[in-house]
Design brief:
By secondary structure, this protein is mainly β. It has one helix at residues 139-144, and strands at residues 3-9, 15-21, 31-36, 39-44, 51-55, 67-74, 77-84, 90-96, 103-111, 127-134, 137-138, 154-157, 160-161, 166-168, 172-183. β13 (160-161) and β14 (166-168) form a beta hairpin. The protein starts with a strand and ends in an 8-residue tail after the last strand.
Length: 191
């Protein structure tokens, strides 16, 4: 993951927006972006110690307004940013991932929930999603058009895609034939 963007709207306080997993049996995703008590949470597996960063106060992002989340990785740092439609200010936090976070490995990309994992700990997102872009690729357009990206083996999901957004009640999963490794990258600029 070097660049992730998701636009969402919901009234519910908790739900998984996006996750990367190493296998279908993986109980600990490599990365998970979710709402927890109405604030944004990005958690990542750092081998021996997981780490989470939060953005916003409780009950701030479950206000049924559209929000755009951007997650960008620059070398050892990750920037988590959110913009609410109609507001000029951006909330953001930058965190040092640490040297033990050299690679992100994944085989499954989960949108709106995590299949086959405890739903109490990681509840499905219920709300609207738009413009889900991973490293510049629009994942919802693949799902909506019943096409599989070249890097994916399959797409599984029961969500009903609308013309411009997706009212989501069930997770969508992209699976790959082999595990992807996104290496520790560096950027010449810190934009």
């Amino acid at each position: 993951l070097d660049d992730l963007s998701i636009r969402f709207r919901t009234r519910l306080r908790n739900g998984v927006l996006f996750a990367l997993r190493k296998s279908p049996q993986d109980q600990q995703p490599s990365l998970i972006l979710s709402l927890e008590d109405g604030r944004l949470k990005l958690a990542y597996d750092r081998m021996k110690n997981d780490k989470a960063i939060y953005l916003g106060d409780q009950n701030i992002f479950n206000n049924n307004k559209w929000h755009t989340v951007n997650v960008k990785r620059y070398g050892p740092n990750v920037r988590l940013e959110i913009v609410t439609d109609g507001q000029k200010d951006r909330l953001f936090v930058i965190d040092d991932l640490g040297e033990e976070f050299q690679n992100i490995q994944y085989r499954l990309i989960d949108i709106g929930g995590i299949r086959d994992i405890n739903q109490n700990e990681n509840p499905n997102f219920i709300g609207w999603l738009q413009n889900i872009k991973l490293n510049g690729e629009d994942l919802l357009s693949y799902y909506r058009n019943d096409k599989t990206p070249t890097w994916a083996k399959s797409i599984q999901g029961t969500a009903d895609p609308g013309e411009f957004s997706l009212l989501l009640h069930h997770a969508i999963t992209f699976s790959t034939p082999c595990r992807f490794t996104l290496p520790h990258t560096y950027s010449a600029s810190n934009n």
